[in-house]
């Protein structure tokens, strides 16, 4: 396995792979601090942007808006504002997700640290995003002082640029309120939408994303199950090792020591399995879940394009209605003033339709670029995620095999002595011990008695049969054992 720098990675070590957000290490979120303002309680985070001179190992072309150092305090609601503003400024872009709201346990230390990590990842992904890096709201979020930033948040559609000393405001198109909402709802219900040459392509993209979402959710469910089973195996090995330790304590000889070693080995395997389950969570389960959130972001981008299409269709319907009204007024004599007002109204409607058309075309092109980028990055991310998972399994199984293998020689040293007691033999003694043989009886005569021979033994048996009272001296013969044959 090769590391990202091209150098060979140490054998059996799963290297952390580089991610897109790693190109923005010059942006950090740190130092969470809790604040109490009356009955309100919130947590602020320090957001730092380092200049290129202090950023390490970062290509100069990705250090977006980092010519000077800046440090600001932002709370979670400020990150949500940035997320929503990005959807407004860069409609159709795949916006990285922010951590979800947490109504309970928001001030738990572990939760705060986890949220800090996720918020930092969100900012870094936005900073290296090809469609979002130049967003005005991002520069405002990273650099504006408290007064300027709060003014930007309360502008309701206006973006106050932090990079300008004149606080230039960019005003978007005015909303037409409830009337426009009813018009768009009517257009949506009737299905009378403007057709574009790319409609078939977007329908295909929509079907692809829907199918991908279903499949990835299935993979995520299976990955979660594997991690859960890994933790169950860890707990099972712990209980297994505990049982063998207790069993070993009930045996006082070498067998008890061997059983204790079995328990200790199982305990080591329990720790290894627990660590392996955590690594599976970090390298496989969490990337899959993160990928599902990215798919949801693609759906939101497609939804923004649909909204722009609906707005454009509504504007065109409005233009047609005003054209009809103008034609009727012009057909009536003496209605020049009304005709002029209707003509001005039609001109405004046409201007709005032109803006909506350009907006719809721009968002459509942005969605196509984003989906194309998503497919390219998805293929690479999935390939590397699967490779990381396979490498992790290989490393885990090698360690398991090694731990089990080290136990076998220790158990093989336990032998039984002549009294059927378990004794531990050293490795050299166990290797030098001769193979066990079957002992056979060697019958010899006692001193002072005739030498035993088969013919004498047969004669004694014949006499015994003829004379039932014959009782040979039991001391005549004795049985001695020796190793080997007769």
Write the layout of secondary structure elements.
Elements: E1 27-37, E2 40-49, E3 70-75, H1 76-89, H2 109-128, H3 136-143, H4 146-153, E4 159-160, E5 169-170, H5 177-190, H6 199-249, H7 254-330, H8 336-412, E6 414-416, E7 422-424, H9 427-432, E8 440-445, H10 454-466, E9 477-482
Antiparallel strand pairs: 1-2, 2-3, 4-5, 6-7, 8-9
Helix pairs in contact: 1-3, 5-7, 6-7, 7-8
Fold and architecture overview:
This protein is mostly helical and 486 residues long. The model is unreliable at 1-14, 58-64, 158-175, 436-455 and 473-486 (pLDDT under 50). It starts with 26 loop residues before the first strand and ends with a strand. Helix content is 59%, strand content 10%. It has a three-stranded antiparallel sheet with strand order 1-2-3. The protein has a two-stranded antiparallel sheet with strand order 4-5. The radius of gyration is 42 Å and the shape is elongated. The chain is built from ten helices and nine strands.
The biggest sheet amounts to: 3 strands, antiparallel
Mean pLDDT: 78
Taking strands numbered 1, 2, ... along the chain, how are they ordered across the largest sheet? 1-2-3
Enumerate the spans where pLDDT stays under 50 for 5 or more consecutive residues: 1-14, 58-64, 158-175, 436-455, 473-486
Secondary-structure element sequence?
Answer: EEEHHHHEEHHHHEEHEHE
Rough outline: elongated
* Strand fraction: 5-15%
Instruction: List how many beta strands DSSP finds.
Output: 9
What structural class do helix, strand and pairing data support? mainly alpha
Amino- and carboxy-terminal Cα gap: 65 Å
Q: Rg to the nearest angstrom?
A: 42 Å
> What percent of residues adopt helix (DSSP H or I)?
55-70%
* Number of discrete helical segments: 10
């Amino acid at each position: 396995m090769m590391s990202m720098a091209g150098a060979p990675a140490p054998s059996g070590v799963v290297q952390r792979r580089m991610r897109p957000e790693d190109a923005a290490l010059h942006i950090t979120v740190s130092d969470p601090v809790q604040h109490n303002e009356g009955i309100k309680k919130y947590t602020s985070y320090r957001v730092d942007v380092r200049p290129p001179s202090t950023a390490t190992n970062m290509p100069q072309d990705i250090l977006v808006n980092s010519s000077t150092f800046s440090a600001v305090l932002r709370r979670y609601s400020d990150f949500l504002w940035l997320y929503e503003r990005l959807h407004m400024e860069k409609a159709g872009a795949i916006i990285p997700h922010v951590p979800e709201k947490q109504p309970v346990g928001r001030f738990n230390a572990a939760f705060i640290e986890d949220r800090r990590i996720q918020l930092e990842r969100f900012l870094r992904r936005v900073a290296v995003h090809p469609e979002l890096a130049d967003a005005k709201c991002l520069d405002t979020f990273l650099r504006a002082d408290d007064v300027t930033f709060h003014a930007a948040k309360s502008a309701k559609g206006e973006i106050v640029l932090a990079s300008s000393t004149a606080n230039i405001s960019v005003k978007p198109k005015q909303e037409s309120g409830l009337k426009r909402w009813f018009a768009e709802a009517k257009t949506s219900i009737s299905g009378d939408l403007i057709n574009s040459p790319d409609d078939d392509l977007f329908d295909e993209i929509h079907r692809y994303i829907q199918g991908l979402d279903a499949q990835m959710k299935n993979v995520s469910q299976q990955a979660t199950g594997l991690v859960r089973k890994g933790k169950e195996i860890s707990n099972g090995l712990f209980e297994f090792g505990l049982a063998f330790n207790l069993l070993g304590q009930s045996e006082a000889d070498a067998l008890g020591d061997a059983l204790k070693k079995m328990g200790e080995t199982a305990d080591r395997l329990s720790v290894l399995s627990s660590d392996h389950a955590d690594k599976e969570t970090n390298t496989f389960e969490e990337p899959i879940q993160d990928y599902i959130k990215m798919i949801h972001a693609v759906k939101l981008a497609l939804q923004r394009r649909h909204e722009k299409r609906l707005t454009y269709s509504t504007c065109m319907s409005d233009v047609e209605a005003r054209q009809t009204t103008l034609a009727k007024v012009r057909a009536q004599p003496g209605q020049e003033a009304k005709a002029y007002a209707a003509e001005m109204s039609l001109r405004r409607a046409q201007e709005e339709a032109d803006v909506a058309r350009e907006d719809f075309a721009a968002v459509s092109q942005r969605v196509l670029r984003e989906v194309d980028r998503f497919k390219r990055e998805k293929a690479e991310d999935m390939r590397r995620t699967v490779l990381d998972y396979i490498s992790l399994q290989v490393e885990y199984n090698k360690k398991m095999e090694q731990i089990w293998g080290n136990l076998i020689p220790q158990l093989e040293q336990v032998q039984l002595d002549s009294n059927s007691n378990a004794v531990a033999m050293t490795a050299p003694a166990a290797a030098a011990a001769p193979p066990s043989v079957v002992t056979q009886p060697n019958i010899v005569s006692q001193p002072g008695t005739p030498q035993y021979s088969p013919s004498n033994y047969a004669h004694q048996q014949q006499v015994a049969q003829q004379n039932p009272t014959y009782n040979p001296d039991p001391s005549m013969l004795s049985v001695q054992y020796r190793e080997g044959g007769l």
